[in-house]
């Protein structure tokens, strides 16, 4: 994401954090291609996600 795109700083931080978390899931599962991620993977991701106080 480009920082000069007019997106508020807080939204940019959230998107970067989300991308980092998804990347960690993909790496931990050994996935190489996007089509390897399944709906159950995403369900597990959201079920195990820790939400911040202001979410």
| Share of β-strand residues | under 5%
Number of E-type strands? 0
Largest sheet: none
Radius of gyration: 13 Å
Shape descriptor reads: globular
User: SSE order in H/E notation?
Assistant: HH
Question: Please, how many helices?
Answer: 2
Helix content: 40-55%
What characteristics describe this protein?
single chain; about 55 residues; about 0% strand; mainly alpha
Task: Describe the secondary structure blueprint for this structure.
Elements (H helix, E strand, L loop, with lengths): L8 H21 L9 H9 L8
Description:
This protein is an all-alpha fold and 55 residues long. It has one domain (9-47). It has helices at residues 9-29, 39-47. The radius of gyration is 13 Å and the shape is globular. The two termini are 21 Å apart.
Summarize the model shown.
By secondary structure, the chain is an all-alpha fold.
């Amino acid at each position: 994401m480009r920082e000069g795109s007019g997106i508020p700083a807080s939204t940019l931080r959230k998107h970067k954090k989300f991308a980092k978390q998804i990347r960690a899931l993909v790496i931990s599962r050994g996935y190489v291609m996007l089509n390897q991620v399944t709906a159950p993977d995403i369900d597990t991701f959201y079920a195990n996600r820790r939400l911040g106080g202001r979410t």
